[in-house]
Each structure stands twice: as structure tokens, then as C-alpha cells.
Amino acid sequence: MGTLKSESFTSDGANSAGRFYADARPVENGTTGYGTLTIAYDAATQSYTISTAGRSATFAPANLVVSGSADFVSFEKIGATSEALTMTRPGTSGPLTYQYVSGGAWERATMSGGVLDFSYDPFTFGAETPDAALRRTGIGTYAVSLVGARAMDAPYAMAGSGTMQVDFQRGALSSSGVLTSIDVSTGLIKSIGIFFGEADLASTMNAFSGDFSMDDGKRFTGGWSGRFYGPGSQEVGAAWHLASADGEVAAGYLLGREDSSIAPFNSALTDLTFSEGFAHRFSQLAYTDLGGGTSAADAELLRSDGAFAVDPETGQFSYIDGARGINTQFGSASRVASESTNAVDVYRITGSDGLSYTLTLNKAGAGNPAIALTYASFGHWEKAQGTSTDRLDRWFAWGIRTNGFQIPTGTGHFDGIVRGTAVRFNGGETYSLSGTSSFDMNFSAGNFTGSLNPIGTSLANGSTRDFGTFGIANGVIDLDAGLNANIVNGGNAYLGFFEGALFGPQATELGGSFGFQTEPTSGTISPSSNGAFLSGVIVAKRPGS
Fold this sequence. Notes:
The protein is an all-beta fold. The protein has strands at residues 7-9, 11-21, 28-34, 37-42, 47-52, 55-59, 64-65, 72-77, 81-88, 101-112, 115-126, 139-151, 155-167, 172-183, 188-201, 208-215, 219-229, 235-244, 249-258, 276-287, 289-291, 294-295, 300-311, 316-321, 326-330, 344-350, 356-362, 376-383, 391-399, 411-424, 428-442, 447-458, 464-466, 470-477, 482-488, 494-503, 509-517, 532-541. The two termini are 48 Å apart.
């Protein structure tokens, strides 16, 4: 802001271009990518000169036109090749008016014989944060806005908004939000998509770059590069580019300012810093507890949604299921040291109903002797039986989920553990479950298979029971990195479910809950006295991760 001096600015830019026809066929010759771009301001002539991709143009006050928006200043030159330069105006508030950073785009259009050749070169520039002044500690959260253009059957505008989190100490960025394609001639929305960007911050320079993606029913991949602006990294700017498998391309710029009202999120369970809630799917057994590690023949298996929250500052954990009137809080004072181990922490409280509630949480990190995990974990929530209520035994997986855009290609193998609870169909012994599991993921095809081998320890007498090996079949990897599969026996008969997710930025871990019966039953087949319901969780990781 203020009076501008003559200056050649460091900038981040992208190039995109395509050919369009009057019959509205899909774009031809679509190209997009990073573009080295320079922008220079001449104070004497009050003009801007843009240079990129072997071409340049100068825009002076004589080329100013009405932009149609208070957020932009626009220049236009009409000729055999018409050109336009649009840049954001300076300001201290609003989604597109910034004090230190500006975004802009140079457009070129040539029409000949009903064929339009169009190029769009977005960029960001301004008063960047000096390399030595860029902070290298703490977390920053930014509100961001996006502007761009997309080549479909014609050039269309793009606009979006979202958030960005920057871990300055680790040098890691991520941004996500909504990105909309718009026909400005009609005002109609062509599509609404979601975007996701992740990047690495250079260790000695004020610069970042990485992957940028969008999905609006069609998947786009690409990249972005940018830097921070202002003496204290108060603002951010970046140029991005995208392409789809069928030839559509897009490019634009992202601008943002730091916003402390945006809640930060945790990047690993080994360093829980911020209060955060984790939605999940759980598996639950409800049964009559007869005491002494035995149950009546009335067990019911349930799967549904729950919520788990952590508050590292106060050391409190919350387990909530609003649909079933559950709201339990566990603090550091409720930790049961005698039952906690290097693998789990156990918490226990007495509720207002006089019943006991227990929460067992797996420990993250290399010190866990059962499995060393960084992003995935599990919990076991229990409600003691009341005079008119069953005992509730619930297992859930939680953690730092893989963003759907982070799902890798190719294949991956995972090895893991099983934890859970089992009760007999016809009553009798109840069991604590341990055991092993394995998964084979085909990330490219979006499917997976696996197996689990649960081992039961009787809560009545301490004896062990090998329940056998069961298959995980018909597994599907959802676009949001969710996992769903059937649990089957050796004859491929359906026994129950597995529901979970991939965890970690590279999908290096997985976790989920399962519930099944050891024997298939129908209206004409009665379960054997040895049959059982099994409920629990699986967590696993890729070898070497």
C-alpha cells in the first residue's frame, strides 16, 4: 500500500493455454504448468510490464478500464491479439484486498476463423517477507481466497476460498477449501469442487512448493508455489496450476492473511498440541454381564457414528455419542496407573448415574511394544451394566486421516494388530481379543483385501481360544480415504463388517473397527454353542514406515 516506487518484483507464476471452437467441443491443446514470470512497475509512467513464456506486454494508465469489481484494477488492449491485465487492489480487509501481496493475471485472446486461442498467466507479487525474517517456529493459520481460469468447452472463471495451516518449524503447509467454476457471461456456476494443496517450505528461503489438486466430479492434479509477504509473514501468495486426464486445464492464484480465529489441527498423534475432535465409526457389543467373565445369551452387535475429542492443554478426553445420550469426560486425574502400560493408558470415572465408565487409549510412538504408530490409534470405551441396562463395550479407531488427495498410486502392504471383545452366541465366557492382521491395498484401483486372526483370552478363567483366520474381502477405498469391506469365512460367506480409514499424509497407516459372528446363520440354521460375536479394532502400518 502507499506510493509505489519503480521496482521489479520477485513473483510466483503459472502459464495455461488452450484452443476453443464455436461448436463448444472440449478444449484442444490445453497446457498448464509453472511459469517463470516477472512483473515490473515504472513509477514515472505508472505502468506495469509482464514477461513470461518468451513474451511481454506493458500496461499503462491509458489502458485502464472499469473492472466491474471494487477488488480489482483492470487494463485492456484491443487488437488482433487482445490482452488484459487484472490485479487485486491494495487494502487491509476483505478476501481479495491485501496490504503486502497482490494477485493478478495476464490474458491473451486471438480469434481467427471461429477459433479462439486463449492464454491465462496468473501470478502473485508484493512486499515479500525477507528470508532471514521468516519465522521458523510455531503454527500459522491463514484464511485464503483463490482466483483463476479453467479451460473446458470455453474459458471459464474460477473463484474459491479456504484455509491454510503452516507448520513453520517442520516446514510443512497444507490448504483446503472450495473452488467453483463460473460462466461469467451468464453468472451460472459450471461446477463446485474441493481443492487441496500441500507443500514444503524451503529451509533457508522464503519459498514453498508442492502438489495441488481439485475434484469437482473430475480429478485434477498439479502444483503450486508461493511465499509469504509482510514483515511478519502476515500474508501469503501462491500461483497454482491443474490438469485433468481428459485434457482440461486450469490455473490461478491464491492470496491469504493470517487469521487466529481459524482452529489449527494436529499433524501427528506423537505431538498432540491442539484441541481437536475426531469423528469415527465404532463397533459395539451390548450384553448382559453375569459377572465372573460370563454373559447371558442376548448379545447385540451395533455399528454407528461416534465422536472423540482431545484437549492436550487440560489433558482431557471426551467421548460423545449424542444420538444415544453419551457424554463422558476423562481427565488426567481419572487415569488408572495400575492398569496403564507402555501400550495403553486407562481412565475410569463414575458417572452421574452411579455407573463406571472406562476409556482405554492406545499410546502413540516408538515406545509402544505392541505397534509403533504416528498417525492412527484406537480407543476402547466401556459402560458398566446398570440394574436395567446392558453392559456396553465399544471399540473405535481415530487419528490423523489421510486426505483423499494424498492417496498414493500403486500398491501397499500393511501388517497390524487386533484388539477387541468376544461373547458367545448362547452365553458363557467372554473374551478379550488380541491377534494379528494384514492388508494388501491396490491404491490405483481403489480396492483391498486382507485377513485377521483374533485370539481370545477368557475373562472367566484365563484360557486362550484361537478363533481362526477370517478374510477381509470386497474392500473399497473411498475418495476420502475411507475403507469399507466385508469379513468372510473360508467359504467366502459374509460374517460382518470392517470400517476404517487410511491415516497419515502418505497413507502409511490404517485403522478401523470390525464386528462379525464366527458362523453364518439364517432363519433355518441355529448357531452352535461354540459360535461367538466379535467386536474390535484393527490398526496396521506399512513395513518400514
